Amino acid sequence: MPARRSLPINPLGDDALLIELGAKVDTALNSRALAMAAALQKRRGVREALAGYSTVTVHYDPEQVSYAALKTAIGKLTRERPPAAPPGRLHRIPVAYDGPDLEETAHTLRLSVERLIELHTRPIYRVFMVGFVPGLAYLGPLPLELQLPRRRVPRTHVPAGSVAIAAAQTTIYPLPTPGGWHLLGHTDLKLFLPESDPPCLLRTGDRVKFFASKA
Prior knowledge:
This protein is an alpha+beta fold. It has four helices and 13 strands. The protein is elongated and about 55 Å long. The termini are far apart. The relative contact order is 0.17.
């Protein structure tokens, strides 16, 4: 049996490293990243292990554990396959499908508006990662029928609560910000609560189910 290929592991300064599990947006890869982050978080000297799409960033205390020792531990975890992380919380989020790009997007995809909404509300999406602005969750995978590139000309202002799609993902803008995704609707749910701990409602590994509501 051929030996398992070692994972690319690269230092990030003197007290962090990056593990690369793959190079695509994939639910299975994201599950591996979450499981590895959870396992590494329990190790002595690890300050924080953060899962991305298919990567894990590990911040550690170099006075308690060395880069070489962590690489060895990661190699062992790779061979053993750490237990799967528990499923994230499920959020049911109401969406008023009244976005400025709704009809144009349906036309581009050669769908009726009703069919577009049906397809968008069908999956239970995974939160692959949170970033760009506080609380913005990258959700996927989006059904193949809804996948299209970002807008050719991004908007300079997207209102908070806007629900949008681009490529293989969907998202909710938690704050007013520029953006190039196609706006299908909006939700009144607050995703970034600066007075809360943690301040972001959606976290990596959580699940999201949209349902249509009246505006």
